[in-house]
Model the fold of this input.
Amino acid sequence: MHHFTRSRRFALVFAMIIALTTVFFAHHSSAGSIYTVHGPTTAVCDNDGSTVPAGFQDGFFGSELHGFWDRELIQISFQFPDGRVFSPFAAYLLDGVVDLPPNYKTVYAADIAGDLYFEYPVTNKWPYGCYSFTAVGTNSGQTATGSFVVTPRTGSAPNSGPAKLNIWKNGTFDSFGEHDSTVNINGRFFFPNEVISVWITQPDGAVLDYPQQLASDIGNFESSFTFTNAHQTGRYLFTALGTRSGYQVFAPFELRARSSTPSGWATLRVAAPSPATISQHDGIALTGALFSPGEPVGIWLTLPDNAVRSLPTQLADGNGDFFTVVQFDERLPVGHYSVTASGVNSGRLVINSFNLTDGGFRGVNADVPPGAVPDTPLVTESNIGDGSLGGPTNINGAENNAGPERTPLDVGSQGCNTPQAYWTPGC
Done:
């Protein structure tokens, strides 16, 4: 199992972009001011209630465009249900949690008639919901949009056989927990010594990969998983599939947010803009006051889905004050954010909030090295600089979880979920 560091991952991304763009140009050559999306089925788009083409994770959709200029390059972007916007290049590299690949601009070439058709894969890192696709002619400036829904697959329940699966918070029999909880994954009654694929479906439908497990001589296995504060909250569904027996079982776990209670007399203010509403490409200026003079101040953002992004620690000056400027981009979801500042020594904790709105796609030019593409959110200014600048500090442990690339059917637990029943014969 290989785990890439962020620097190695960026280097890999940079190497891939040239090859991927070549594939696009070699196999897809058309464009247009009308964007028609093709999918295997239809579904209702929550944005406007209309019925639009739809498809499934681990499938494909087709993009048909017309009306662009002769041989014009057409820039494509995908807006996700939560408002994040990715290029086709970046959308293929999502990890399902952090989702911060370099957002390199991706262009396709129209043919001599200004037409374009291409197909694109929907990975299991794409959440369920309604997407908006945008095509912009780089010379003509013409813009076309289309809608597409990623919907769960439906079908009969898979064969569970005698297999059982339970997910419990470590040290308890609880099927719920808060951020930073470790859960035990306990499977029983699979085929002896068979390889078992395990994956985790998040509340939004995106899938987290997990290493395959090996059953014991009596068909049991035990593993564990830690939910960091970078994970969204809500109902998760764990799936275990015996690769020889075909037994497939499910177990839920509810992840809850930790609560922060304001304390002390420190203050935190969104100094700019006013009112505290910005687009995805803007920044906010934060000022803190009445912390202990010279103390470190922890600062973090809570996203609309209750995932947390911790930012570099700030340092109060001799008067107990600090300021910082936080920059955003289109890889973050739109919605209501909370920002928390906590004095490391004083324990004073204060919370404020702001709103992030749709800013459209800007992307990154292909000549920018991956290591030079900043993360988001990003602290760009502070009262001291140096170590207080930079991107999120809590994301390395949450991204690029390794495991099988499969999409489960969203079916409920197979039963035997109480501690008393779980250990009884016949359960």
User: Anything to note?
Assistant: The CA atoms of residues 7 and 371 lie 7 Å apart.
